[in-house]
Amino acid sequence: MDTDALVTGLRRRGSLKWTRHPDALGAFVAESDLGTAPAVVQALQDAVARGLFGYLPDWLADDMARATAGFLRDRHGWEVPPQRVRPLPDVLAALSAAITYLSRPGSPVVLPTPAYMPFLEVPPALGREVLEVPMARDGGRYVYDLDALDAAFRAGGHLLVLCNPHNPVGRVLEPAEMRAVAAVVDRHGGRVFSDEVHAPLVFPGHRHVPYASLDDTTAAQAITATSASKAWDLAGLKCAQLVLSNDADARLWAEVGYPVEHGCSTPGAVANTAAYRDGVPWLDDTIAVLDGNRRLLADLVAEHLPAARYRPPEGTYLAWLELGVPGAGDLLLERAGVAVVDGARCGAAGRGSVRMDLATPAPVLTAIVERMGAALR
């Protein structure tokens, strides 16, 4: 199938990625063009046939909690009691709850950058300042700047947003790195919101280790959010999971959590349960495709964007391209007909870069980079 036919088929699906900019190639939002697992489709079709459209029933929330705990155990080696897994609509609802209920009132939120765009937007909407902490470099890899994190906590920060695998730079944090971060947090009596929504999407040579699973200190610090939404392309079904590894948090959540949990959709819980329980073989095949795409992108960047800096992501299906071109997002949309995220939306540290989605057929990915190269020459 040629590229034009592939793009026509993708637009016909009607997703945000392919309809917001109808004259451009879509690579801006973290949606996958690779579909979802047959087990998920079948579970949703069964739910439709049953008419399972009401509020999330207790039995389904419990079933999803068991499926999530099983996946965390089998995939990441993290033993979590199912009763500590709570339903949510999405990771942003979890962040809002963490800020509102689990951080010191009025305290700034500590955010390593470049960061997922809404992480810069949610805290101010809740009356909180964001303390941006630009990530440092270790060779070609982005790493957390421990001295800068320490300074942010000394400046009054209390809740650290830790994104692992990291959106947008694709790092999969190693245990030693996380323990070093935990030491800083512990020194200041801080908390950690651990966004692990991309955790199922880790490439060969890397392993996702949940922050809360490291030791008693990280378990007490962390409130963890995850979901099948990215790996199985289910974001529109509005379902995620909050993992409570702190006993006091679990007691508090029993009192305040209902309004947040109420936003979790029933079809989303059906889909997440099926993904975790029966969708892993499909996930492994999809990761192999994405692995090929991240390597293909390296070749394409070398050929068409030789001045750019790109390191294949260790996890996620997001690519971070350092182009050295301020306002590159708008420029590429206007001149190349390519929709990506301008890096400045990811914080001051992202200026001159772009975030792009590589979960698309290889011919489409090729066309995207060819257009980018032609526009920037």
Describe the structure.
The chain has 377 residues and is α/β, with parallel strands linked by helices. The protein folds into two domains: 3-31 and 280-376, Aspartate Aminotransferase, domain 1, CATH 3.90.1150.10; 41-278, Type I PLP-dependent aspartate aminotransferase-like (Major domain) (Aspartate Aminotransferase, domain 2, 3-Layer(aba) Sandwich), CATH 3.40.640.10. Helix content is 46%, strand content 15%. It has 15 helices and 15 strands. It has helices spanning 3-13, 16-19, 38-50, 58-76, 91-102, 117-125, 146-154, 175-187, 216-221, 247-256, 258-261, 266-278, 280-304, 328-336, 362-376, and strands at residues 25-26, 85-88, 109-113, 130-134, 136-138, 141-143, 159-163, 191-195, 222-226, 240-244, 309-310, 318-322, 338-339, 341-342, 353-357. The strands form four sheets. It has a seven-stranded mixed β-sheet with strand order 2-10-9-8-7-3-4, sandwiched between helices. Strand 11 and strand 12 (318-322) form a beta hairpin. The chain starts with a helix and ends with a helix. The model has no long low-confidence stretch (mean pLDDT 98).
